[in-house]
Amino acid sequence: MTTNLQLPILVFLPTAAARLVVSKLQENGYSASAASSIPELQRSLHAVQWSLVVTTRPDIDLVRNIRPLPVVNLEIFFHSDLHAGTLEGGTKQFDTKAFMGRIDALTQPRPAREPETPARSAPSLPQLQTRIRRWFLPYANAR
Predict the structure, then answer these.
(1) Angle at the Cα of 19 from the Cα atoms of 17 and 22, rounded to 5 degrees
(2) Separation of alpha carbons 63 and 41, rounded Å
(3) Coil, strand, or helix at residue 55?
(4) Most buried of 21, 90, 91, 94, CB within 10 angstroms?
(5) Are 56 and 41 in contact (CB under 8 A)?
(6) CA–CA separation, 88 and 86 (whole Å)
(7) What CATH number has the domain bearing residue 16?
(8) Higher-confidence residue: 7 or 87?
């Protein structure tokens, strides 16, 4: 699950929705806080280090213009309930499992990259001449 060293998650949504999402994150062991207005968002993003921000599509650019952080679009986890009858009048179901899976994936520490191996150095001129002679030698003797 999560560790104490993990950075908190910021939820930028209207108050009631933000409380619901923050409580769900906290139930799953994450540290999370909410911001519901633009001034509150700006203060939060400048004052604290965050692992990511949860918001809706219209606010993604706003968040990224203040601070470049990973953003989870909450809207993609709502799906039409096919059991409610018609798609037009159907209710939306929130896919909690997929949402928490995305949060887990974005907050888990990633293994450090292995150091890059140095590129092979370009052959020197004498080495190139030797290679060329070896390649042309069989053709030169064939004449």
Answers:
(1) 110
(2) 8
(3) strand
(4) 21
(5) no
(6) 5
(7) 3.40.50
(8) 7
pLDDT, one tens digit per residue, over 76-96 is 998 887 665 555 556 788 899
**Range(s) of the domain holding residue 36:** 9-107
| Mean confidence (pLDDT) of the chain | 84
What angle, rounded to 10 degrees, do the helices at 15-27 and 96-107 form?
A: 70
User: Is residue 118 situated within a structural domain?
Assistant: no
**Phi first, then psi: what are they for 70, rounded to 5°?**
-65, 140
In total, how many domains does the chain have? 1
DSSP letter (8 states) at residue 10: E
Predicted confidence (pLDDT) per residue in 50-76, tens digit: 999 999 999 999 999 999 999 999 999
Angle, in degrees to the nearest 10, between helices 38-47 and 57-66: 40
Residue 139 lies in a domain: no
Tell me, yes or no, whether 142 lies in a domain: no
Q: Could you give the C-alpha distances from 38 to 8, 32, 34, 65, 80, in angstroms and in order?
A: 19, 18, 12, 12, 30
List phi, psi (to 5°) of 23: -65, -40
Q: Is position 93 within any domain? A: yes
